[in-house]
């Protein structure tokens, strides 16, 4: 059961090593500009491999529940899917196992890869665990820890963890079958870091933050959904919403107000607390993504700009 590209390496691992009975993914619905129907990565895989595909709108629908029961599965494997009702996750003989892109119990939630980067973590990893009736709280089976490189963005980390996660799931399934894992309960006596769902507010850049914090936010949201800010032209009283995908940073006592913009040849810097962010790769909302040199060549920019 899964939807996004993150689950495809695990799906491929299962197809190549076990008897996969069916694939479950989200139902088709319009998305993006033009509201076109786009197949999920998992659906594309199912169609390519000619594997039975189920797309229920309601996971508690009796016909869907009966369908899963009739498979008599040993496992349900879940990667980046919806919350399952007990009537589904309790069906398999050996359990329902989820792959999560963090070292649980830290970063439970929808966006663990993004928040690990935004918070400047030096390490993260993947966890396999038995699903229970809450989100990401079930008994831990196995974990794999990796170092985060200083230049990794969300796409880099996503790709690394999806591959490592597929190997961890293969190992987990075999060890559960052989009864060689002792599940570990997640603790409840500590405040854990949370992977909040990304929204219009928490992707905005606060220019009063320090350079390293802003740099981590930009890479943690790149390439999707992208860190956002608004460029205001004080002279002409215009605004442009931009998405920043890549930058450099410098820590220095610049004496400037946060959000002050300095433009020179091929250089676009925004001041923040004790430093600057130098933009490298951006997009004006509704336009094409471009390197900063192309942006400066193609748009009427001046030194009467601020970022908010």
Helical residues, percent:
25-40%
- Uncertain spans: none
CATH topology of the largest domain: Rossmann fold
By secondary-structure content and strand pairing, the structural class works out as alpha+beta
Largest sheet: 7 strands, antiparallel
Query: Could you tell me the mean pLDDT?
Result: 94
Total strand segments: 17
CATH class of the largest domain: Alpha Beta
Distance linking N and C termini: 41 Å
| CATH H-tier superfamily of the largest domain | Formyl transferase, N-terminal domain
- Topology as a string of helices (H) and strands (E): HEEEHEHEHEEHEEHEHEEEEEEHE
Shape: elongated
* CATH architecture identity of the largest domain: 3-Layer(aba) Sandwich
List the domain count as a whole number: 2
Strands, helices and their partners?
Layout: H1 8-17, E1 23-24, E2 30-31, E3 36-37, H2 41-49, E4 53-54, H3 62-71, E5 75-79, H4 86-89, E6 95-100, E7 108-109, H5 112-118, E8 123-130, E9 140-147, H6 154-177, E10 194-195, H7 211-220, E11 227-233, E12 238-251, E13 261-264, E14 267-272, E15 275-284, E16 290-291, H8 292-298, E17 305-307
Parallel strand pairs: 1-4, 5-6, 7-10
Antiparallel strand pairs: 2-3, 6-8, 8-9, 11-12, 11-17, 12-15, 13-14, 14-15, 15-16
Helix pairs in contact: 1-6, 5-7
Describe the structure.
The radius of gyration is 23 Å and the shape is elongated. The chain is about 25% helix and about 30% strand. The mean pLDDT is about 95. The chain has helices spanning about 10-15, 40-50, 60-70, 85-90, 110-120, 155-175, 210-220, 290-300; strands at about 25, 30, 35, 55, 75-80, 95-100, 110, 125-130, 140-145, 195, 225-235, 240-250, 260-265, 265-270, 275-285, 290, 305. A hairpin with a 5-residue loop joins strand 15 and strand 16 (about 290). It folds into 2 domains: about 5-195, Formyl transferase, N-terminal domain (Rossmann fold), CATH 3.40.50.170; about 210-305, Formyl transferase, C-terminal domain (Methionyl-tRNA Fmet Formyltransferase, Chain A, domain 2), CATH 3.10.25.10. It is built from 8 helices and 17 strands. Strands 11, 12, 13, 14, 15, 16 and 17 form a 7-stranded antiparallel beta sheet that branches. The chain has about 300 residues and is an alpha+beta fold.
